[in-house]
Amino acid sequence: MSNRGKKYKKAVEALGEKKVFSLQEGLAKLKSIAYARFDESLTVDVNLGIDPTKGDQVVRGSLVLPHGTGKRSCVLVFAKGEYAEQAQRAGADYVGAEDLIEKIGEGWVDFDYAVATPDLMGMVGKVAKKLGPLGLLPNKKLGTVTFEVESVVSGLKKGLVFFRNDKQGLVHFMCGKLSFGEEQLHENVVAFLRSLSAAKPPAAKGRFIKKVVVTSTMGPGLQIAVEEL
After folding, report:
1. Are residues 141 and 198 in the same domain?
2. What is the pTM of this model?
């Protein structure tokens, strides 16, 4: 903690000696010790009881949070003809094909989600090395490679968000902003954890959710009592 600023250290001191909190208490604490001059995000980090090296234990899913994330999603769609028209009707921010591929090839990636119709994935493959590492490559398993363009784009604009475990078996998920009310944050976190629990792969044995930590952009992480969730 020696490299942390005075405000961070003061926030940690305000937590006292308690190490594990109920979800309601933890959210209240994070809001009370917030010191940043901007509206911080609330992130939930979950340590899962899976072997992330095994393909049959990958955890992924999606949901629309009850109160959204507090962030407007920018959606790009690779589509032509009637599917491009569907995307525009649903509120997509960028719609195109070769023109978008060229723009991305030049380094532009100013969007949050990318959707593509299956017939254009060969073209999208040209920029896969740019989009893949950023988590922006359309993915059939996530439902972003589809001809159901209108419904998918509509869901994304309404706040549909995705989650997936990383190489360490952790899931990091944004559940809103600290400016949200405590009850709103609580409902968002509970909705996420329920969706996460429902995504437990059959191959995963034993305790699935091992540890839960909530944190704000600038604040310390607070461990939440899993038994109470």
Report:
1. no
2. 0.81
